[in-house]
């Protein structure tokens, strides 16, 4: 494994944010849905896919989605060093966490996995910045103050770029993206549970395309 520096992680995370305006946050319960779901999102213009480690098949879903041409697959809900190891083994090329601990950050750096770590307050954002992480997830975005909160951080902490996630929708995403410190958003609205369950990949592709069209 090749270690990664915070600076490399920042660069990688900015690349991800510049690839598409939305990172789909995926909670996949059915491994047989992985390929179709991933392919539909990629075809719709959202190639950066965050598969949350919240289901028993999540690691297999990552491995399956990692085979999709044009897809960039990461693991979300990273909590422990073991999660990081598992994610890397499965083929994840980036990691996302709801918050941040030194243990988790150390593990990601050791495993060479760029981490998009979560912060919810000025202090948490500053703490991550002390460790070198200037591209951060803002979670849970809507519950923690939404776009006005992030806009308020832009003046005192202009060095930090955020990817807000949690309660973000097609309707409120433009408010976040209007802020100078936001380059992309994360959200599950492009992969609603019922549509994934029905394996209606045409509908997923339309949701992805709508997001790209409205938010690019
Ligand atoms: C999550 O961790 O579940 C993400 O932040 C997605 O939140 P959402 O389902 O509100 O988009």
Structure description:
The protein has 216 residues and is α/β, with parallel strands linked by helices. The protein is globular. The chain has one domain: TIM Barrel. Helix content is 44%, strand content 16%. Strand 1, helix 2 and strand 2 form a beta-alpha-beta unit. Helix 2 packs across helix 3 and helix 4 packs parallel to helix 5. The site of 3-phosphoglyceric acid has 10 residues, from strand 8. The site of 3-phosphoglyceric acid (3PG) has 10 residues, from strand 8.
Topology, element by element:
Blueprint: H1 6-19, E1 22-26, H2 34-43, E2 48-52, H3 58-65, E3 72-76, H4 81-90, E4 95-97, H5 102-111, E5 115-119, H6 122-130, E6 135-138, H7 146-154, E7 161-164, H8 173-177, E8 185-187, H9 193-197, H10 201-215
Parallel strand pairs: 1-2, 1-8, 2-3, 4-5, 5-6, 6-7
Helix pairs in contact: 2-3, 2-10, 4-5
Quick summary of this structure?
By secondary structure, the protein is α/β, with parallel strands linked by helices. It has ten helices and eight strands.
């Amino acid at each position: 494994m090749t270690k990664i520096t915070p600076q490399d992680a920042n660069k990688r995370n900015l690349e991800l944010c510049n690839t598409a305006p939305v990172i789909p946050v995926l909670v996949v319960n059915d491994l047989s849905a992985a390929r179709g779901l991933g392919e539909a999102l990629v075809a719709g213009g959202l190639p950066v896919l965050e598969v949350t480690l919240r289901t028993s098949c999540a690691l297999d879903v990552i491995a399956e989605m990692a085979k999709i041409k044009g897809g960039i697959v990461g693991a979300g809900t990273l909590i422990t060093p073991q999660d990081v190891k598992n994610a890397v083994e499965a083929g994840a090329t980036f990691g996302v966490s709801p918050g941040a601990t030194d243990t988790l950050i150390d593990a990601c750096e050791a495993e060479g996995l760029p981490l998009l770590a979560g912060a919810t307050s000025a202090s948490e954002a500053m703490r991550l910045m002390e460790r070198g992480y200037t591209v951060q997830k803002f979670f849970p975005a809507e519950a923690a103050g939404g776009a006005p909160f992030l806009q308020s951080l832009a003046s005192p902490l202009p060095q930090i770029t955020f990817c807000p996630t949690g309660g973000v929708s097609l309707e409120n995403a433009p408010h976040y993206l209007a802020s100078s410190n936001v380059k992309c958003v994360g959200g599950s609205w492009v992969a609603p549970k019922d549509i994934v369950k029905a394996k209606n990949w045409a509908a997923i592709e339309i949701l992805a395309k709508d997001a790209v069209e409205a938010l690019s």
